[in-house]
Design brief:
Layout (H helix, E strand, L loop, with lengths): L1 E7 L3 H6 L3 H8 L3 E5 L16 E5 L9 E5 L5 E4 L3 H6 L16 E5 L4 E6 L10 H20 L4 E6 L12 H4 L7 H12 L3 E2 L13 E2 L11 E2 L2 E5 L7 E6 L11 E5 L2
Parallel strand pairs: 1-2, 7-8
Antiparallel strand pairs: 1-14, 2-4, 3-4, 5-6, 6-7, 8-12, 9-12, 10-11, 13-14
Helix pairs in contact: 4-6
Amino acid sequence: MIKLFSWNVNGIRAVERKGLWKEFLDKNKPDILCLQEIKANPEQIDISIDGYDAFWYSAEKPGYSGTGILTKTAPLQVINGLPQDIIKKFKVSGDIYGDPNKEGRVMAAEFEKFWIVTVYTPNAKDDLSRIPLRFKHWDPAFLEYVKQLEKSKPVLFCGDLNVAHTEDDLANPKPNKGKKGFTDEERGGFQAFIDSGFIDTLRLFKQGNGYYTWWSHFSNARGRNVGWRIDYFLASKVLRPKIKAAEIHPNIMGSDHCPVSVTLNI
């Protein structure tokens, strides 16, 4: 069995300062840990990672975005960013907020039997000004990338996709319809992953609402579980028989997101 975790840490140094990083590793012992929003350069990251190989892909902008992969088994290779041919094909370029290709948003690691990809999808923004980037460029480019990787071996991709896919994926769907994270365009981008054959692993085991991974800091939203499920593990269809568990971990503190995990018999 192999256990994979994904966690938007909202600043890895902040989790360490809270004294929650080592506790998380010691208690959960992930074989592979994918991180988003590390908000640090490698030389700034001073955390306990005994027993892991660590790979970091930081944003050029200090204290912003960034991803990481920690693994007990050395990967065959690690690839940072989307390939240039896909960036060119889908015109994934900068906007008023910056260039997503310089924000450390995608890492892929190849192992003997699968690829693992960690992704921190650009936020649509409150005024939806990044919807064009998401809908026309980023989401189709990322889908093309994981399908390209899938030609060589099965793919698991995970991370903060910044969208609630269905009404079951947020506590208050009706007042949030059309707002960032729950627009038709963002939901359509996620549905394209499903339509192309990827499996939303949590839904193999749990149906209905109440399973959330992000909560606002306001009004005790986390305590009341008024949240959104925007962090996922998706898997190539061929892996379905090997997926033995998929979970969210709302009791793991340290970020406004909680970790998600899958267990594979592979």
